[in-house]
Amino acid sequence: MAEDMIKENPEEMKPAELPDDVAELKKLLEQERAKAAEYLDNWRRAMADFSNYKKRAEKDAGEMSRFLNATLIARLLPILDDFDRAVQTIPDNLRDLTWIDGVMLIARKMQMVLEAEGLKPIDALNKPFDPNVHEAVIHEETDQHEDDTVIAELQKGYKLNDRVLRPTMVKVAKRK
Fold first, then answer.
1. φ and ψ at residue 9, rounded to 5 degrees
2. Are 83 and 156 in contact (CB under 8 A)?
3. What are the pLDDT digits (tens) for 37-79?
4. Interval 146-159: pLDDT, tens
């Protein structure tokens, strides 16, 4: 449009045409500036979206690496339970034997490796019952404990990096 109005020889332009050309050029310039501003704004939004995506992907990768071994650790928990039961049932006359000390050392090493991976036992005994970390297996009527207090731990529960891997199976007090 404006190009058509500009003639090869500027002397051929009439003074009345000049303001129209300038006005048209200014209008086109403003339109192009608006487009440029819109493109810049879209580009900034895309960059922000990409930055958020990168942060989210890094967070997800971190979470995944923290819980990657969860299945393996969950499968090892029964072995840890067996070690605990074995240690509890050792007769007093056998506790001084060196091979018993060796087995107990192996159990402690396994527990330390799992703790290094983020495994923590859930403390339940004499705590208020919490369905998020406890699984009530037995309710016992009693006057010796407050209502909804864990009075026995039947199977130890564990958290892996603050996420419940296995809830603690408990006996819960119930007022008569």
1. -115, 115
2. no
3. 999 999 999 999 999 999 999 999 888 877 778 888 999 999 9
4. 888 999 999 999 99
Tell me the pTM. Answer: 0.62
The domain spans of the chain are 16-67, 70-117, 121-176
| CA 137 vs CA 70, 93, 146, 151, 170: distances in Å | 24, 34, 17, 12, 6
CA distance 35 to 120: 58
3-state DSSP call for residue 15? coil
Tell which phi-psi region holds residue 115, choosing left (phi > 0), alpha (psi between -120 and 50) or beta. Answer: alpha
Concatenate the DSSP letters of all residues of 86-105 into one string.
Answer: HHHT--GGGTT-HHHHHHHH
- Residue found by looking up tokens 């402690």 in the block: 108
CA–CA separation, 57 vs 101, rounded Å?
46
CATH number of 121-176: 2.30.22.10
**Cα 68 vs. chain centroid, distance in angstroms?**
12
Residue 157, number of CB atoms within 10 A of its CB: 21
